Amino acid sequence: MKKVMQNTDIQYIISRIHHKFTSYMHNLKTNFDKFFNIIKSVFKDRLNKSDNFYLYPNKPKLSDCEIIALSVTGESIGIDSENYFWGKLKSDHKNDCPRLIDRSNFNRRRKHLYPFIEQLNQHLAD
């Protein structure tokens, strides 16, 4: 009887941890949308009609605002592993992110947009 109780307690704890973690991932789209709107309001005078800071010869799949919002969303939900986050996006949130670009392109553009991410952080901290 004691052994059964211990397994039940452990299963309960594991299920609670799993539920807590998956609820963060479940709210990924909501968090992304909130950050996207904040970014658009903070930088409204600097964005073009495609929500980009720069002019691109070919229209990118994701706008600069979407790149920044995705980056901030990943940081906000507390996932340390970029590999894990990107894998979750591609597997569990495929419908939420149908235009998801390759991770290397995302990182290249995010690096290029870093000054705007810093300005956003400064704006939110004030």
Task: Give a brief outline of the structure.
68% of the residues lie in helices and 0% in strands. With 126 residues, the protein is mainly alpha-helical. It has one domain (27-125).
Number of separate strands: 0
Q: SS-based structural class?
A: mainly alpha
Distance between the termini: 57 Å
Strand content: under 5%
* CA-atom Rg in angstroms: 18 Å
Number of structural domains: 1
Average pLDDT figure? 82
Q: What about the largest sheet? A: none
The share of residues in helices is: 55-70%
Number of helices: 6
Question: SSE string, helix = H, strand = E?
Answer: HHHHHH
What would you call the shape? globular
Low-confidence stretches: 1-7, 18-25
Give structural notes:
This protein is an all-alpha fold. The chain has one domain. It has six helices and no strands. It has helices spanning 2-26, 28-42, 64-76, 82-92, 103-112, 114-125. It is globular and about 35 Å long. The termini are far apart.
Keywords:
mainly alpha, 6 helices, 126 residues, globular
Walk me through the topology.
Blueprint: H1 2-26, H2 28-42, H3 64-76, H4 82-92, H5 103-112, H6 114-125
Helix pairs in contact: 2-3
